[in-house]
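Check this.
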Amino acid sequence: MIIKCIERFSRVFGAPVDWDGKDTTCGALPIKDVQTPEGPFMVSAWEPTPADLAAMQSGETVKLWIRGTLHPVVALTVGDVA
């Protein structure tokens, strides 16, 4: 997946302080702060690569990876952010 710049982003996150970058890079992530009836969310935009699209078309699924041991509330959506 490719990190995209979400329209009207609020802020940009960099790598965590303890990220060593040995196994993978951690690029800048523009996010948009959105208030919902369920509380605040941080929304980022991603674009599948051609390889991602081919994998999905052949039956693979999108995986959400979360660093840590506690699972926050998350959502995956497609399209505009209200």
The mean pLDDT is 92. Strands lie at 2-4, 11-13, 29-36, 39-43, 45-47. The CA atoms of residues 19 and 30 lie 18 Å apart.
